[in-house]
Amino acid sequence: MNMNNVKSMYHDVPIGHLIDDAIEHLRNQGLSEATLTATRNVWLQVELYMKQHSLQFYTPEIGEGYIQGRFKELGIAFSEKWAYRLSMLIRRLNEFWEAGSIHKRTKLSPSFESSLGQSVKRFLDDKISRNRFSKYTIRQDTYYLSVFLDYANKHGLHEPDSLYVEAINIFLDSLPREQKSLRHHIIRTLRLYLSYLYDKCLIEINLSRLLPHDAYRKETKLPSIYSKEEINRLCSSIDRNDALGKRNYAIIMLLSRYGLRVSDICGLLFENIHWEECLIVLNQYKTKEKVELPLTPEVGEALIDYLRNSRPKCNDPHVFVKGISPFTSLTTTLVSNIVTSSFRQAHIDTTSRKHGAHVLRHSLASLLLKQKVALPVITGILGHKDSNSTKDYLRIDSESLRQCALEVPKVSKGFYNQNGGAFYV
Fold it and tell me: What are 12-54's pLDDT values in tens digits?
């Protein structure tokens, strides 16, 4: 729904009055004065933006224009946390503009003290102990099961054997229907949890098989990619006379030439580099799949330059370590920041494109497709379990897609003269 077509009670009210009313509304919800001041300061920047662009009355479209303008102005010199907070505050202003109220957000913190709650904790601990799932996956599963547990606590479901399919379906029906993604992920996580309860003989019936089938399918966005020239410019912009520059150059070479994930850069050990065979051999952190990559001269030289002339002397087994004491392995956030800052230093236009470490992986896939490299080969290079994951990259090979386009057949003149041509006037 386009909110600009909504007849808002604030459609012809100066934004100053809109801000004052929205702040007072939030104050009545119990927000602290510090939070209110910070919120007002952001909204006052929107008011300044409107004055600079000679805009009289606020609309959500103006709020979106302000956000995009700020992102473009800062380029890539902002954190995801800041961007999320800015977008969230503009959404709240839009909500008040439309409805005259802002839905009060409450943090989800269900009790895990019941037998059901303890079984949820054991399920999550079991996933963690298997060391096959990322921290992100565990956090997401914890959240989805917390939504279910919060409902269960409020409706007297305190034991695993108190669960029955009708109660679970009522819970699923209570979820916001417009949040299809939330429902989808909760069903998926619940199915795993209920299967775990059945395997542990905590429930008599395998309720996981009785959950409703969910037809939700997320539309995959096209990945951001950069051209070969842009990637080369990115690499050449790094100051290799600097100690950290040598390290960062070697990291970006590995990311761009092999499409490695950030987690594999952080976990790269000396034992993974087989100098005599000119190979890099490692088990990927995400898939646990083994991958062997040829150690090319340009990557090998970058690694040697870093190891001989830049890497601090320490006993850490990881190839890449921090530049200051304590010399420990890098974090995924630090590696991502290295790539982000390098894009900025190279003055590469990142408008409407992501600019983190993973875009180098996408860009490599795009380059290989343009070079007509077979899909199974790309699968092996990227370390995918099968070609189904790699097929997502086919959508970014626009040149090949154009070759698949079918010519639209000509329509005879008689088609337009049907029924005297009455329908085509």
Answer: 889 999 999 999 999 988 888 989 999 999 999 999 999 999 9
Phi, psi (rounded to 5 degrees) for 290: -80, 140
- pLDDT 10s digits, 332-363: 888 988 999 999 999 998 877 888 898 999 88
Convert the chain into a string of H (helix), E (strand) and C (coil).
Answer: CCHHHCCCCCCCCCHHHHHHHHHHHHHHCCCCHHHHHHHHHHHHHHHHHHHHCCCCCCCHHHHHHHHHHHHHHHCCCCCHHHHHHHHHHHHHHHHHHHHCCCCCCCCCCCCCCCHHHHHHHHHHHHHHHCCCCCHHHHHHHHHHHHHHHHHHHHCCCCCHHHCCHHHHHHHHHHCCCCCHHHHHHHHHHHHHHHHHHHHCCCCCCCHHHHCCCCCCCCCCCCCCCCCHHHHHHHHHCCCCCCHHHHHHHHHHHHHHHHCCCHHHHHCCEHHHEECCCCEEEEECCCCCCEEEEECCHHHHHHHHHHHHHCCCCCCCCECCECCCCCCCECCHHHHHHHHHHHHHHCCCCCCCCCCCCHHHHHHHHHHHHHCCCCHHHHHHHHCCCCHHHHHHHHHHCHHHHHHHCCCCCCCCHHHHCHHHHHHHC
What pTM was estimated for this model as a whole? Answer: 0.53
| The predicted structure's pLDDT at residue 2 | 43
